Structure formats: C-alpha cells, structure tokens
User: What shape does this take?
Amino acid sequence: MASGKSDWGIKVRVWVERAGVKVLGPGRVELLEHIDRQRSISAAARQMGMSYRRAWELVQAMNEAAGVELVEAKPGGSGGGGAAVTAHGQEAIRLYHSLVASFAKTSQDVALPAEPLAAPPDTT
Amino acid sequence: MASGKSDWGIKVRVWVERAGVKVLGPGRVELLEHIDRQRSISAAARQMGMSYRRAWELVQAMNEAAGVELVEAKPGGSGGGGAAVTAHGQEAIRLYHSLVASFAKTSQDVALPAEPLAAPPDTT
DNA sequence: CTCCGTTATGTCCATTCGGGAATAACGAAG
DNA sequence: CTTCGTTATTCCCGAATGGACATAACGGAG
Assistant: This one.
C-alpha cells in the first residue's frame, strides 16, 4: 500500500537573506541556540554531530552576512575561551522562530486534499 | 553602503512529498511546464540550459514519487517520439502554483522590519 | 612560565551531484 | 527497409560539499 492512506505532505524551508546572501536558515538558527546554551562553538558542534570546522564556518558566514556579530567568540582564557550569542543573535533567533511559525500556520491552512493529483472533471 | 537601505529579505522554498520522497519542487514544476509547451523532454532541457540526462532523471523521479505518471514519454515514431504532461501533471502544476501563491502571501504579511536585528530594549 | 581547552586555519580525502559524451532502442513516415 | 529525432541508459569526469585530522594562536589560572 504505497499510497494506501494519504502520505502526501507540504514541506517549507525558510531563510533570511541580506544583500542576497544567506543569513539565517534552519541549521544556522539551531546552531545559534546550541551555542547559546553551551557557550562554546565546539561543544555546540559536538552536540549537533557536526564538525567544529563546519560550525565555525557557519558562524563566520552568519556574522558577516548579518553585518552585526550574532556570535562573539574569544580564544584563550580560563577554560580555553568560549563563545556567546549576542543580543542581536538572540533577536535573530526570535525573529526566525516567528517566521517559521507564520509559514507553518499557512502550511496548515493550505493542507493538501486526500488525492492531490486527481484530475479535475472535464468542463466541456 | 553595505546596509544603507534595507536589503533584507525572506526566501521560501516549497515542495511536495509523498511517503517522504520529493515529488514537486520549483525546478521540477518549471520542467513540467517546459515539457508541456515543448512536448519533448530534450527540448525542454535545452531551453532550461539543463542536460537531457538530468531532465530525464527528474521526470523518472517525479513519476515514481507521485505514484502516477505526470509525464508520458514515448520513443520512436514520427519526429522521434516525444513527451506530454498528463492530466495529473497539469493538476500538479496548478496545485504547486496555488501553494506558492499562498506562501508568497504569507511572506508579504510577515515582511521584515527595516532593522531586523535591532535588539529589543532591556526590560529590567 | 607552564598548562589547558577553546578558537582559528590549513590540508587531505570520501562522497555527492550533475554535465558531457557515447550508444542503443524505438517506431512512424517515406 | 531506411531514415530521423527523440527517448532510454551507461560511463567518465570536474566541481562542490563537508568530515577528519593536524597545528597554531590565544590568554587566564596556577
């Protein structure tokens, strides 16, 4: 029963750009949240099963694309240093979540019919 | 003036799945429309600047994922054969466009503020 | 000064993706 | 049967992606 019930679904991916370059996406925001909790890029990366390299690149890309520091990182110091999500970063997280919520609501409203690809009756 | 005005924007990508596998996306629907006009996969591919191979693979994937033939292709015959978008395919195009329209509307409604990342005032 | 864990950066490599080209299959028209 | 342009299929390769690893830089604590 490959199509026994109705396993059709709508998927939406939302992201925020500035000057045409990506600033926030689902993965980036998730990373922001992990950094916020861990106060460390490497710890966040580990927790997400992502390489530190990639996490760091994402942070760079985010900061540059946003034009403001969303994550403030510093090497050295007690514990080796660490990273923190700035006030702008916090705001970015809130903003993105509200966007996702809006589109999720739309997704509910436009729910697909049981048979999305039933050809409409001939109108002649 | 890297951020002189307000070059922030929201981007949304919508796609339709069945049983967890992608059926329709922006590129696939565009391909459907080109095939519908050209009545040929290869012509559609040329027009889109895409290799015939990729176009053909997309058609296969679409047909299989949908569980119904969205494109009916036949080799041989006068003119070498050709391809046509079925009634189900036509319906798929309509469906996808309506989805995109809905999400575009939401995108308008949730338009970003001029300074998306202005930190909210301290509430203490 | 030494130690430590994190940030910062470079190099190498497996995987994926899709283009390009080559080839066969096909079937109606002539 | 031959011709013709399209569909169908395979093989090879370049680019991009991102993981794994190695190494330096950093700076507070002791």
Summary: Chain A touches chain B through 41 residues (CB under 8 Å). The helical segments of chain A are 26-38, 41-48, 52-66, 87-109. Residues 16-106 of chain A form a domain with the Arc Repressor Mutant, subunit A fold (CATH 1.10.10.10). Residues 50-51, 53-54, 57, 74-81 of chain A lie near DNA strand D (CB under 10 Å from a C1').
